[in-house]
Specification:
Blueprint lengths: L3 E4 H6 L1 H9 L4 E5 L2 E6 L2 H10 L5 H12 L8 H9 L2
Parallel strand pairs: 1-2
Antiparallel strand pairs: 2-3
Amino acid sequence: MPMKTVSVAEARNRLTELLREVEQGAPVAISRRGRGVAVLIAEGDYERLRSAAGGADFSAWLANWRARAGTGFDGISPDELARWSLAE
C-alpha cells in the first residue's frame, strides 16, 4: 500500500490526526509544491532506523543515504529501509 502524502499546509491543519495514523503504523509523507520534504514515522520506527546506522553518527549516515537514494522510494516502509541499509 502506498504511503499517504499530504502537503505542508494539510499537515499543519491535520497534525493531530496524522500523528494518530503514524502511531498506528502508517508513515505519512509531507510534500511542498509536489516534492517530498519529510516523512512522519513512529518513534519506534525511527529508533530502528537509528539502530540500523550502527555506531555511525546518525546524521552523517542519513545524509549519506539521502545522497545515494535519490528518488523512487515512495511507499518504502521503515523496516524495508533498515533492511536495505544493513545490506550494504
